Amino acid sequence: MTDSESSPSSGPIDHDGEPLPIKMLADRLLVAPDSEGERRSTGGILIPATAERGKRLSWAEVRALGPNVRSVKDGDQVLFNPEDVFEVEVRGETFIILRERDVHAVAAQRLAENSTGLYL
């Protein structure tokens, strides 16, 4: 086994070298952030990835959730403050761990069925 395979940031691995399944606990969410690359303004101006974003909330897709999460489902988009988050790398992909109370909004097609909410 090489050093890169045994590094703690690559995710939990069993004795045979196989990746272990991950289960989120309590009210925790595992989310995949939207790409942090270049973006375009509404006017078409290209904004580089290194540009200061200021106090701006970010969107991410929920990939896993704990048993006590009530308002969010797997696959939903959530709005959160990227300033105070915990990042973890699992099998080469970067994820963020959030508490449900740190989520400001949820965007999902299923929400349009029974409510008259804000359309973002």
TrEMBL record:
Q: Its domain of life? A: Bacteria
Note the InterPro entries from the entry.
Chaperonin_GroES, Chaperonin_GroES_sf, GroES-like_sf
According to UniProt, the name of this protein is: 10 kDa chaperonin
Molecular function GO labels: ATP binding; protein folding chaperone
The entry's family comment says:
Belongs to the GroES chaperonin family.
Q: What does this protein do?
A: Together with the chaperonin GroEL, plays an essential role in assisting protein folding. The GroEL-GroES system forms a nano-cage that allows encapsulation of the non-native substrate proteins and provides a physical environment optimized to promote and accelerate protein folding. GroES binds to the apical surface of the GroEL ring, thereby capping the opening of the GroEL channel.
Q: Where are the transmembrane segments?
A: none
Keywords assigned: Chaperone
Subunit structure of this entry? Heptamer of 7 subunits arranged in a ring.
